[in-house]
Every structure is written in structure tokens, then in C-alpha cells.
Amino acid sequence: MIPRQKSQLVRARLDQFPAVALLGPRQVGKTTLAEIVAEERPSIYLDLEDAADREKLADAALYLSGHEDKLVILDEVQRMPELFQTLRGLIDKGRRRNIRAGRFLLLGSASIDLLKQSGESLAGRIAYVELEPLNVLEVDGDDRETLWIRGGFPDSFLAESDDASVVWRENFIRTYLERDIPQLGPRVPAETLRRFWTMLAHVQGGTLNAAQLARGLGVDGKTVARYLDLLVDLLLVRRLPPFHANVGKRLVKSPKVYVRDSGIVHALLGLDGRDAVLGHPVAGGSWEGFVLENLLGAAPERVKAWFYRTAAGAEIDLVLELPGGKLWAIEIKRGLAPKLDKGFHHAREDLKPERCFLVYSGVDRYPKGDGIEAISVNALASLMAKA
Q1: Would you list the DSSP string of 211-261?
Q2: Mind giving me the DSSP string for 19-41?
Q3: Cα gap 378→360, rounded to integer Å
Q4: Which of 45, 237, 255, 340 could form a disulfide with 73 if both were Cys (CB 3.0 to 4.6 A apart)?
């Protein structure tokens, strides 16, 4: 059992809010975390993909009101969006009797429906926590490269061998395409969506070129936008927005796009192990996405993230705004002897960040001059967690 960083945050939000939504892709560990929380307090667990559990909620208000002294865990809650109105009524009744926190823990694999429904019905009554795949602060430091190659889904990372990990990831992708996405309603051919997902993996960390993707798929730009929205809403792809500042320069306006789990990147591209990854052109983009996801997963909730790029070539891979408005500039390089490009220094002059970091593949932390620190992803993630 690997302790998850977000477990303390879930507990804190349950002590503060009547409902907490724990969001994340399938197989990321939401149910396991919920079971650990459930061991600490009276609770009941309902899996809304199970017909017997859905039947219990035929009269949801009656059933749930009989368990108001317990934490009710509702897994795959997006399968019954009509529940949210009922939950609102039960929460409001409980508040009038001074039952104010820890009523419902909602687990969801798709953010769009869950956020839409709960936002309409549970505003002010619910907190959201996103559970990402395992990060470098949750595994042994010696396993960092394994985490990069296999990705952070627990069953993939903990597999007995690289081959077993690849088989798990292939089945994960196939299950999402053939079963999970159709259940959510969008009618997208599985093979077309897999091609699109694979195309995103090929350009990992690149700026979005919707026209080029559309030509490759033989569809129009609106269809590409719909496919991308779907994968973003399923928490499988990240759109990193450009930083907009009044610097008097022409800025890149397209977002950068990342497949969020590095192991899924490698599986989509047929890269079965370390040597295959290091010999592929995607290695740099994959490492960049891996570092980015680890840093954002460790960051406090209110941290905002962008990248910065001008038409003239000034660029910073990751710009973070911490609580209080302080900017951190982070450049990400794969290798043990990283060098900064002129574009980074020009971007620093534009933004004047408070701190600058160069994240590289080594473990030592040392100054690079000009107020820039070379640092490992583990060390910077730890620093982010305390920010």
C-alpha cells in the first residue's frame, strides 16, 4: 500500500464540507483512498456501476436519510447525475440540524458531467479534490525512472515486469476507448479516438495545431476540438494555457497539450521499456510532461500554471503563480548537464519571476548563476508541496 499525499486533504475537506468530490481517471486509486478514509469513521460504500447498489437508490432520499450519521461513499457518481438534487436537499436538511460536514464522498472518473451537475446543485456545499497518478513524493526516490517509464497508475507502476506493465496499460487504453467513453454518451469511433490520442502523444508538450490534427484524422477543426475536450474532461490530457502579460511583445496564443501520464504516452507509441523511450524523439517531451504533472500534483490547490512563449522565441516551459501572486519560472531539460537557451533568459527579462529553476535528470541541487537553481524533480516537488 502506497500512502497518497491527497489523503490528508480529503480528510480535511470532509471535516469542512458536507460533500467532497474526489476526481481522477479510472484505476488511479480513488476507491482505495476512499476505503482507507472509510476505515476511520462509520461509513457505507455504494458502487453506482453495480446494479444492486443502484437499486438501493431507487428512492435515494429515503435510503440516504437513513444513513445521515455515516459517511456515504458514492463511487462512479457520474452514472447517476439525478442524485445531485437529492443530495442538495439532504445536505440542507442536515444543516438545519447542525450536521454540517462529512456527509458524502463522491468518486468520479469524468470531470465534465460531475462538475456540471454538482456545480448546478451543490454550490457552496461541495469541495473538489483531484487525485492524480502516483508522483515522485509517493514512491521511493530510486524508482523515479521506473515511474517515468511506466507512468503513475498504481497497477502499471507496481507490475512485476515491464512487459506486465505494458500489457496493463494497453488494456487500460482499450477499456477506456471501447467501454468507458461510450458509457459517458459521446459517440466517437474507438479507432478514431485512439489515433487522435496517439497523435497527441507524438507531439507531447507541443503547442496545439488543430488544423494539422484535423488533416491527419480527416475531420474538421470542430471535431478535433470536441475530441480534445473529451480527453481533457476525462482527466487524461492537459491543456496548459499560454501566459498573457502586457510585455509589448507578440505572444503565442495556442495552448500546449500533454497526455498526462507518461506511461500512457509510451504505451500509445509502442515504447515498451527504458531503451525504447530513450531512443525515441518523444523522450524530451515525455520527460517534460512527467515533470510538469509531478510539480502540479504536488503544488498547493490555488497555484496557477501557464507556459510563456513569444513569437521571437523567448520561452519558459512552466510559469507558476503561487498564492500571493509570486511567479516561479521553471525550465525542464532531460539530461545530466543541462544548458539554458537564450530564449529562457529573454523570457526572464520579460516576466521578472521571483525564483527560477532548471529541472534536470540528476539529483544534485546547485546554482547555475543569475539566480537560477538546477534541481531534481523530487526536490522541486517537495519544495512545491511546502509553498
Answers
A1: HHHHHHHTS-HHHHHHHHHHHHHTTSEEEEPBP---SSSPBP-SPEEEES-
A2: EEEEE--TTSSHHHHHHHHHTTS
A3: 10
A4: 45
Block residue for cell numbers 509517493: 138
The model's pTM: 0.92
Measured CA to CA, the distance from residue 77 to residue 62 in angstroms comes to: 18
CA–CA gap between residue 268 and residue 287 (Å, rounded): 15
* Residue found under cell 490530457: 237
In angstroms, how far is the first alpha carbon of the chain from the final one? 27
- Cα separation of 139 and 191, whole Å? 34
User: What is the domain partition of the chain in residue ranges?
Assistant: 6-130, 141-385
CATH number for the 141-385 domain, one of 1.20.140.10, 1.20.120.140, 1.10.10.10, 3.40.50.10420? Answer: 1.10.10.10
- Do residues 107 and 74 make contact, with C-beta atoms less than 8 angstroms apart? yes
**Fold of the domain built from segment(s) 6-130:** Rossmann fold (3.40.50)
- In this structure, the strands spanning 104-108 and 19-23 are parallel
User: Distance between CA 305 and CA 321 in Å, rounded?
Assistant: 7
Q: What confidence tens digit (pLDDT) does each residue in 151-202 have?
A: 999 999 999 999 999 999 999 999 999 888 887 666 778 898 999 999 999 9
60 Cβ contact partners less than 8 Å away, ≥ 6 residues apart? 83, 86
